[in-house]
Amino acid sequence: MHLDQNTPSDAAISELSQFLKVDTRTDVKAAALQHVLGLTGSEAGRRQLLAAADVLAQLKRLVAEDRSPAGHDASLALLNLSGFAAAGAPLLAAPGPNTAELLLRRAVQTDSRLADACCMVLSNLSRHPAGCAAIWRCLRDGSAQADGAVTVERLVVALCQRGFNTVGCKLDYLGPLLSNLTQLPEARSYMLDRGRVVFQRLLPFTDYQESLVRRTGVIGAIKNCCFETDSHMWLLGPDVDLLPRLLLPLTGPEPYDDEDMEKLPVDLQYMDETKTREADVDIRKMLLEAITQLCATRSARERVRAQGAYLILREYHKWETDEAALELCEELVNILIKTEDEIGVDDLKAVQIPNDVAERLHKESAAAAERPAPADTT
């Protein structure tokens, strides 16, 4: 088999599909996959591959059926392609197994060595509305089936259960996937359903130090769920007790006098002198945004004040050096230190947001969503 790696024609790329079949001789299939991986390293190569539906179909079949190194290389090719902005539609529409369902099944298969790559592909595809919606439909429909389809609950268990994957995959990129999915109102509603214990499983990971990717994703999902004003009192109440989880990463080792200490939740009292704050500024900003969302209504603001949030934020403000984070902190503190008479409205979300503030928030949200999982051409 010969293919000009520098300037292959579209026809030559399409011919690759015959060498990518599951039952193709191992050495031939390996050579074809190396060509594909090489092509994913350039924009021109990615465009050609994404236009070759038959090649994409064979890559998916290898991921679905082949446990050999060929399946691993095929999953890396899909990962590299999925980081390309235009990849969503052709990958989701490619013939063969349903793309979203295939990737979800592999991601939560306990003995799959392709799970991490599939998690990253899902994370990349879910950054865009069409991909996000397609993945959510699979999860939603899976929850209504009894045939072993992947459900939201199983996805969250895979993310939160240590050692879920028995062959060494970490599954950290399920965190960003969940963060992307919870941009959908339907997904937030499902996560916050009080008849399920889904949202609560995420809480221990707000201070999870073993993976920045997982921690960022989980906090992003929690922040997104905080946009649901109707759930605020439940989130702040004893069934969830979310506020201490959001404040803990912002808490330092500073001592408080006895009177102030008594105002703090038990989990935030008497911090060890070695206690450090969240090191990642983007996470700190998401935590502040989440708490600000929880201050939308008068009853929720009163509960946030009653748990000593101002005391934590006062010390945090002295420590913070990032200007954007400081601004978010100051906006939140401004809400907390005002009396309700000064605020003058029950629901802050009913107040029209100035255009410049709305534009800034939109840009920050879009920038966060555009960060892809890393590509791999090895």
Summarize the SSE layout with pairings.
Layout: H1 10-15, H2 26-39, H3 43-50, H4 53-65, H5 69-82, H6 88-93, H7 99-107, H8 115-125, H9 129-143, H10 152-160, H11 174-181, H12 185-191, H13 212-225, H14 232-236, H15 242-247, H16 258-261, H17 281-294, H18 298-306, H19 309-319, H20 323-337, H21 340-343, H22 355-369
Structure commentary:
The structure is a single chain. 57% of the residues lie in helices and 0% in strands. The chain has 378 residues and is mainly α. The two termini are 21 Å apart. The longest helix is centred in the middle third of the chain and has 15 residues, at 129-143. The chain has three domains: 1-96, no CATH class; 98-227, Alpha Horseshoe (Leucine-rich Repeat Variant); 241-349, no CATH class.
